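Continuing the series of single-chain predictions for the mutant panel. This is the parent chain; the variants come on the following pages.
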Amino acid sequence: MSDLDVLKVALSRVLLKWYDKHKRGLPWRQTSDPYAIWVSEIMCQQTQIATVLPFYDRWMAKWPTVDVLAEANEQEVLSYWQGLGYYRRCRQLLEGARQVASQGMPQTYEAWLGLPGIGPYTAAAIASICFGEHAAVVDGNVERVFARVTGSSFTGSDLKKAAQKWATKNLDKERPGDSNQAAMELGATVCTPRDPSCKTCPLESRCTARQSWSVEKYPVRARKEKTEQQKHIVWVPLHNGKFGLRQIEKGQWWEGMWEFPRIDATSLPDHEIETALRKIVGQGWTEDVGTVRHSVTRFRITVYASLIRCEAKSRKLKWYSKAELEALPLPSPQRKVLRLLSAVL
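Parent structure:
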């Protein structure tokens, strides 16, 4: 087929033909169960699929249906989510499961929008894949394909709006779910941010960026949000082989999870960190555990950790053995501190 003949074929048909031949055998593509696909979509938000796969398999083995998840304990659910980050997604998934268990599974795009944590992208994905609704999905992969194919210089919300119109126009009416997945799959595996495989792309002859040899200029980069540096002091209370932790209050980062006592020391110069710790815990037996670093969105957090050997237990804390900590939901920075402890204890 010549390039001219290819251009006469609907874009959705070209993508579907490519998708049927080259799609990855992901576990959630082996089912039409709305719950299973819902879980996969929430897990894959801002997380690479390679990272998600073992978490997804473990989750579905533990909670194979929405009704089983609805009965789960939040602390256990959070512990299974450790390593995926963005824990609000997990809480909203559990809250949504409880809502579905009592009210029934949504069947339409609009109904899915009524669940916690479900926005236009996730609602469109589930509605199109599971119920055949003509609802176009736009994620970062689709935005990138759109920008390159059309040569669009839009950024930010303008890019998303333009990509949404383009995706809706090119959504296959007979197979909307597969059509959505085909566009996302192309962006994830071929039309990648760096070193795209243009020669194997089914849309090569239609791609404005490819024809002008400017593929990696698209999407046009928006101005990056300035990173913000933070410093946290963490002290690890230890008494008779048990560690003292507190549950993080509602409204704070990682709410509902557990942490060793911590304060924000961002305003302090590095040389005053130890002095500040002494003022907090007194002149007891302290040992430097080390420093860990962690990134959350635009924040770059440096954690200064110390071990405090206590003569008595504080009633303000809950005390756990090291083995018990393994099953307790801890934020990633705290989990990193726990790993450092192995070099001290």
